[in-house]
């Protein structure tokens, strides 16, 4: 739940996931069409998109690089 609420500006993440073929064009469009960042993150995290370890690694590496404060905060809790 913390990730859904705290990821700031998730659009670059979705762009990366599309580029790395974690998201299909259809899934990317579906997620990007949602009205809020929280709904977009919820769809990403609750869907099947990050079930594979390589997809999780891409997601985690992005967060470590782009939002390290968030990763540190979540790991301390």
Automatic annotation (TrEMBL):
Domain CARD: 1-77
Record-linked PANTHER family: APOPTOSIS-ASSOCIATED SPECK-LIKE PROTEIN CONTAINING A CARD, NACHT, LRR AND PYD DOMAINS-CONTAINING PROTEIN 1
Gene3D superfamilies: Death Domain, Fas
Gene Ontology, cellular component aspect: cytosol
The entry's keywords: Cytoplasm, Immunity, Inflammatory response, Innate immunity
Descriptive protein name: CARD domain-containing protein
Record carries keyword Cell cycle: no
GO biological process terms, semicolon-separated: inflammatory response; innate immune response; regulation of apoptotic process
Subcellular location: Cytoplasm, Cytosol
